[in-house]
Amino acid sequence: MDKHQKRRITFLTIGLIFLLSGIEYAVILPTIWRYLQILEAPPYFLGLGLSAFSLSGLLTGPLFGLWSDRSRATKHIILFSNLFEIAGNFMYFLGYSKWLLLCSRLVAGVGAGAGSSIFGFITRCTQADERASVFAAIMAFRQAGLLIGPAFNMFLRLCDFKLGPFVVDKYTSPGIFMCVLWTLLQFVVLAFYWDVPSADSAEGGPLQEEVVLLEMNEEELPLVAAEEDSVHRYLAVHSDYRPQPVRCPSKDHDPDPPTSPGAGSEFLREEVVVLLTAQFITLFNQTALETMVTPMTQRYFGFTELGNSLMYGACGVEVILGFLLVRWLSSRVADRVVLAVGLAICGVACVWCLIFLTDLRGGYEWELTAFIIGVFLQLLGLPFVAVSQVSLFSKVTAEKTQGFSQGVRRSVGGLATILGPLWAGGLTNNLYVMLGMMLALLTLITIMTYLSYSHLTEPRTVECAEGSADSGL
Q1: Max CA distance (Å), the chain
Q2: Would you say 394 and 123 are in contact if contact means Cβ atoms under 8 Å apart?
Q3: Which of 77, 133, 319, 409 has a CA-to-CA distance to 120 between 20 and 30 Å?
Q4: Does 252 have pLDDT greater than 50?
Q5: Which has more pLDDT, 205 or 20?
Q6: Is 98 in contact with 34 (CB distance < 8 Å)?
Q7: What is the pTM of this model?
Q8: Is the dihedral of CA 134, 139, 143, 144 positive or negative?
Q9: DSSP 8-state code for residue 13
Q10: Helix ranges (DSSP H) in 193-269
Q11: What is the residue-averaged pLDDT of the chain?
Q12: Range in 81-90, 144-153, 206-215, 290-299 with the lowest mean pLDDT
């Protein structure tokens, strides 16, 4: 099996990992509240249980990322992190007490922290021009998991038997079901995941050619270069390799940002702050919207569990199509253009909701139409912002510490997924305040993006001329 086949199969395995993460969210979320009630947990335990998963992923993401940066390998990290998913879901299945259930989500969330290593791995083994397409495809897998997860719930809710001393019912079955799936994934990773070489260290790539050039003896170099050869060009190791110019720093942009995560200066650069802010605001608004939707549909439109399931299914289809659209678009336009389009769509959606959804009375057909349009626009902008900011972030941060950087980015997103529901949960009866805050945040990141637009691009490289003034010759 050649390198390209291994790379393709490895990406499919990563997609399967994200698919299972989406399925886990979809099969556990609908039943966890009733499960906690049976265990006599107070209402605030629902928020604790949902936040525990994000909290542990927030804390462990940078650690897993730092581990992958130092080892330059992710396979053993994925295998290790999946053990926490297996253990956490088995604890969820046991469910002796509300505290064990809370701990189960905390333990399972540790496994989600490996996502930073995976994103770092994708960054290292893809070229900049194809990265956004790969990120879009991987994210679409998770949305597919969210879409098909409710289908598994259709048969899981019918479970009613004993497995030795353990009861398997509609509340405990999601835990053992996901435990089995994550266990099977271990074998898939063992068989079909390879730590393929990074794009810059692949055979015949720029890094190898630079080493070849540096290893040339000084005696082999001419004392005076010909005028037409004043620009260095690497010689190809293989005949089918197309020569490329030497990469040198551009005066307008520093292509070699700080590589030490301990320094912290990398995350204070203008473009990095903008992208981290975009990550936080996007997920904050998304989770706030998710928290708001179900109470609204129940109060104003009389949706039952079936109606909400159909609505979430339609939303899942839209988001998947959105990611596929971004995957196609990202190969034709720059990431910052995709980001600007996504922010514009989200802004229009938020204004629409402020105008039409803050004074609902119920019983009017136009209200349901306005609600559907508002949700459609919010979800339409999500893939544009999500994919573009991940792709841009991978290009403006140091590749050597990409795992740690992606861990920091995902931690910022984890913080947003904790705060978003907390903000929206207490303001479902005051949509002016809730949607007003969402619009204010979108306005902030739009202004930041406009002011930093020239920096939101991959560091440029120029041809380095021999004997230039900067060389001191």
Answers
A1: 88
A2: yes
A3: 319
A4: no
A5: 20
A6: no
A7: 0.72
A8: positive
A9: H
A10: 206-214
A11: 77
A12: 206-215
